[in-house]
Amino acid sequence: MGYSLLNYLEEFITENRKALFLSVLRQRTRHFTIVLENIYQQHNTSAVVRSCDIFGIQDLHVIENTYASKVSRHVARGAQKWLTFHRYNTNANNTVSCFQRLRKDRYQIIATTPNHHNSCSLHDFDFTKKSAFVFGAEKKGVSDSVMEYADGFLKIPMVGFTESLNISVAAAIILESVTTRLRNSKLDWKLSDEEMMSLYQEWIEKSIKNVDNIKEYYWKRKGSEK
Fold first, then answer.
1. Burial of 90 (0-12, 13-18, 19+ CB in 10 A)
2. Measured over all CA atoms, what is the biggest interatomic distance in the chain, rounded to whole angstroms?
3. CA gap 219, 87 in Å, rounded
């Protein structure tokens, strides 16, 4: 294959950094993903981003029907750099647009809500199915569109007086449960080699200062060698 751009960029990264990237990528999954719908509190979005990184979730889908979602670097602690964001904010009903894409990628849509009579308990959830967990706006929860188009409903068992959890806490509890079971299973849950290498190069580029200038130099040198 010769001396590729990736080979060249790797020269600007320490061996420890490269090893860390590969180690993390081996634990990443697209078997599960998270969907945030109309989350307006920055610290909630940021905390979910951090949980996704911690539990190895690569993709985060953000629906912005009403609010523009932002990430706090202080809360996310840099986790936003390593996730793949998918934003939906150009249509009248971005929730439907998001679901269409997820179904195309063979995800089942799971609305997280404690109030639906058909909600499945987290302990009984079938983790073997490729699933997108949807979390709705603070206080109001998921929208009517989510309730209408969801393939299933999920709840976290609670035995206290309080009837709901903070969005970021609920996301962390669900992700810890389903990813632990997933990693202890025989399912093929990891990224493909192609996906891993694509993200590996993306992460390397994010780690290099003035990377655009460095890439430009590489392509000029390649052109002069022809």
1. exposed
2. 72
3. 31
Domain limits of the chain? 29-189
Mean pLDDT value across the chain = 90
Those residues with Cβ within 8 angstroms of residue 54's Cβ, 6 or more apart along the chain or in another chain: 79, 172
Q: Which fold has domain 29-189?
A: Alpha/beta knot (3.40.1280)
Tens-place pLDDT, residues 122-147? 999 999 999 999 998 877 888 889 99
pLDDT in tens, 7-27: 999 999 999 999 999 999 999
- Name the burial class of residue 48, with classes exposed (0-12), middle (13-18) and buried (19+) by CB atoms within 10 angstroms of its CB: buried
Listed residue (59, 3, 7, 31) closest to 197, CA to CA? 7
